[in-house]
């Protein structure tokens, strides 16, 4: 079983409340979302593993069980073309849970007209393979968000 932890400090809101129909409908996969605190911060790895996809606005870490976890920093933030995001690792790097992956500023994302809400998604999973999904309340970076069978 894999425990997926929060890449950010903020408030858990659940995927259904993400202002994007693809994430809200769990079309990418099941999981939850974080409405981050509005200050410059570092998004950290939610699991130990290998960075298999890395963009300024999103990254995927695959753990030793082959579970891929997507962290998407804001909604429609691909349209910012990397502005305001700083990559701290490289694709192919091995990371440990809690290691900083991307530095960004949710307040700047919001000022640019985008939602800073961050889906954290279990890729190629089914909703019934996740347990203890946190969908409300305050969370700190590194707190458990869900378990994955």
UniProtKB/TrEMBL annotation:
UniProt xrefs under Gene3D superfamilies:
Glucose Permease (Domain IIA)
Protein location = Cytoplasm
Look up the domain of life of the source.
Bacteria
- SUPFAM superfamilies membership: Duplicated hybrid motif
Q: Quote the protein name from its UniProt record.
A: PTS glucose transporter subunit IIA
Q: Do you know which Pfam families this protein is assigned to?
A: PTS_EIIA_1
> Which residues are in the PTS EIIA type-1 domain?
20-124
- Keywords on record: Kinase, Phosphotransferase system, Sugar transport, Transferase, Transport
């Amino acid at each position: 079983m894999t425990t997926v932890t929060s890449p950010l400090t903020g408030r858990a809101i659940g995927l259904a409340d993400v202002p994007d129909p693809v994430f809200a409908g769990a079309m990418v996969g099941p999981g939850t979302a974080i409405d981050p605190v509005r200050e410059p911060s570092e998004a950290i790895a939610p699991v130990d593993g290998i960075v298999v996809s890395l963009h300024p606005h999103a990254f995927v870490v695959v753990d030793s069980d082959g579970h891929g976890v997507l962290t998407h920093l804001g909604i429609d933030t691909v349209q910012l073309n990397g502005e305001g995001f700083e990559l701290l690792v490289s694709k192919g790097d091995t990371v440990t849970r809690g290691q900083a992956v991307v530095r960004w500023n949710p307040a700047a994302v919001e000022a640019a007209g985008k939602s800073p809400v961050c889906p954290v998604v279990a890729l190629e999973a089914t909703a019934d393979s996740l347990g203890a999904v946190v969908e409300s309340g305050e969370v700190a970076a590194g707190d458990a968000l869900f378990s994955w069978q």
